[in-house]
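[recover] target loaded
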């Protein structure tokens, strides 16, 4: 089964599962949104890599209602859910059923986002993708990646796994959901350490790089091309609410 088929099969329960599967969901996405440095009325162009059902794009849209979005994913049934989610917004949202490893020539964006997807790539593919993201961003441009983090030592990796399993049970995940989630993680996940991901972002050319939120194996990576300034042609605000 391909990764697209695996996630298409999860469509009936994915949105409910993801909130249980991501401990600290609200805080994590609040940190991700708060790190976006643009004014809320800015007509940003946004690319969502591995957009799935559009949950991250929806939160960005609520914060930036004049933004336009391209949602990219290999799982067409998941994008069908996103199409329903944003049907009222019409042409503000476009959809690309494709492998986002091939994003060259896909336009230029103010903001590239991704949530719980890039960890499915091998390390050399992550490095290559970060370079491609840098190339399609305006200056200033921002890349926000909400993703899993590998423990830097075997002890930390075991700690992260025990923490995750305990948290999702507390969140109310059924044993069947947990079993399926563990199977997907073993089959498709290729997590990378936080320090490696920050290094790869710097190597890609990003001047400002940080993990602005970390909760055991969950993190929010921030990378900026150029520095925010009105002289760059994009109004940048300081309101982090």
């Amino acid at each position: 089964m391909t990764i697209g088929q695996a996630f298409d099969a999860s469509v009936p329960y994915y949105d409910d599962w993801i909130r249980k599967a991501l401990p600290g969901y609200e805080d994590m996405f609040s940190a991700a949104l708060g790190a976006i440095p643009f004014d809320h009325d800015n007509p940003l162009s946004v690319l969502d890599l591995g957009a799935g059902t559009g949950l991250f794009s929806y939160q960005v849209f609520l914060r930036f209602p004049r933004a336009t979005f391209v949602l990219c994913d290999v799982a067409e049934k998941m994008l069908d859910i996103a199409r329903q989610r944003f049907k009222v917004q019409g042409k503000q949202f476009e959809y690309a059923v494709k492998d986002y490893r091939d994003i060259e020539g896909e336009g230029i964006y103010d903001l590239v986002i991704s949530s719980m997807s890039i960890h499915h790539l091998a390390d050399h593919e992550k490095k290559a993708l970060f370079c491609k993201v840098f190339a399609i961003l305006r200056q200033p441009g921002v890349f926000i990646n909400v993703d899993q983090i590998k423990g830097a030592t075997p002890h930390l990796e075991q700690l992260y796994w025990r923490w995750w399993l305990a948290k999702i049970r507390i969140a109310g995940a059924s044993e069947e959901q947990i079993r399926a989630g563990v199977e997907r993680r073993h089959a498709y996940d290729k997590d990378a350490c936080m320090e490696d991901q920050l290094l790869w972002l710097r190597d890609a050319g990003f001047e400002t790089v940080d993990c602005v939120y970390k909760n055991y194996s969950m993190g929010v990576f921030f990378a900026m091309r150029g520095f925010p300034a009105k002289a760059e042609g994009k109004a940048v605000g300081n309101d982090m609410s």
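[recover] notes: The chain has one domain: 3-228.
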